[in-house]
Amino acid sequence: MTPPLDPALLSGAPVEKAPPAAPSLHHGALYALALGTFAVGTEGFMIAALLPTIAHSVSVSIQAAGQLVTVFAIVYAVSSPILTALTAALPRRRLLMLSLAAFVAANLVAAVAPGYWSLAAARVLLALAAGLYVPNANALAGALAAPHHRGRALAIVNGGITVAIAIGVPLGAFIGAHLGWRATFAGVALLSAMALVVLAILLPRDIGAAAPAALRDRLAVIAAPGALPTLLTTTLWAVAAYTVYTYISPYLTAAAHLTPGMIGLVLMVYGVAALIGVTIGGAGVDRIGSRKVQVIALPVMAAAFTGLTVIGLLPGPMAIVAIIALIILWGVSAWGFFPAQQNRLIGVAGLANTPVILSLNASFMYLGFAAGAVLGSLVISMAGVAWIGVAGALSLLAAMAMSRFAWTRASSTPAAVINSISRP
């Protein structure tokens, strides 16, 4: 039987501070987990910058090379909750070590792939490993921290992904341009191996033991009050983000006439803003609660996207300055939303079901990424690249409505019903 759900987490309110004897953050373990998410994030985000080089190398069209992104997203989305549920009996430390070791091996397979289909197979292996590591790393972060520190713990682990956007992706693009795309996969394999060593040293051997449960019982968490609309909020947020992010390079070329090198610098600025956002979001969860953080973050993100369309349609001599300011707002607000959403899902599902609910969240997010890329393509073909911002903003309006419905659904459900659903 799982413990009753935390009413403060369900309401989105900040959790009252524990007495001084309460456990504090396990910084060493959290930063070890973050190093792993940094490696996973670097591989996941750098592939877009390498597509033209890969397409030429394996003799396929750029559209075919783009399917390497699609196959990763779909496999990640489908496999993550299933594998997380099937491996629930494994101790969390062993599971994280095995998944990261598989990620190392898959990167090496990609580095030596002789052709397109073998590279696609490597991307499938990468998605399977990443989809197992990331949600379980976040789940362990939530379990390691006292309730009043949980937002910061999630921010640290997710900070690995935002640092990957800020540093890992530009570095991977630089290595790919000078040493070839295979060297980038080899580099990520080395980085992942380093993360594996750090995990082995810093994660205690008895940490995060998990209780076995049937796949049906684990996935039944989606029936918790407010769970499905909360997950759909993630999807709509992801649709908005990738409608714009996927096509930010042609947008910057059209709106500000930037060269590829300058676009890389702008994306680095976005990554730094994302790191700031996830830090502010994590601290905000602990101070004002998940709901208030999201009420602020989603409208700011929508306003930033709308501003990008306005500048794209009415460019001026100082367009790049305004664009950079809006991209900073986008990065801070988008990633400020993320730890609040994860903390909210922990409150919906309960700590015992955290690994599965966060893996489901990753699935809904990656489905949103794929849908966003399709939506952006349709918008560009029908109206032009400047309109991707408005399309993203409209998706965020839908996310706001869905989020409000989810909070209402969870708060209006009697506690007895919530607790009965949370028991496997």
From TrEMBL:
Bilayer topology: Multi-pass membrane protein
Domain Major facilitator superfamily (MFS) profile, first and last residues per copy: 29-410
Keywords: Cell membrane, Membrane, Transmembrane, Transmembrane helix
Keyword Transmembrane helix: yes
Compartments reported by the entry: Cell membrane
Keyword Membrane annotated: yes
Segments passing through the bilayer: 30-54, 60-83, 95-117, 123-146, 153-177, 183-203, 219-242, 262-283, 295-314, 320-338, 345-367, 373-399
CDD domains noted in UniProt: MFS_NepI_like (cd17324)
Protein name: MFS transporter
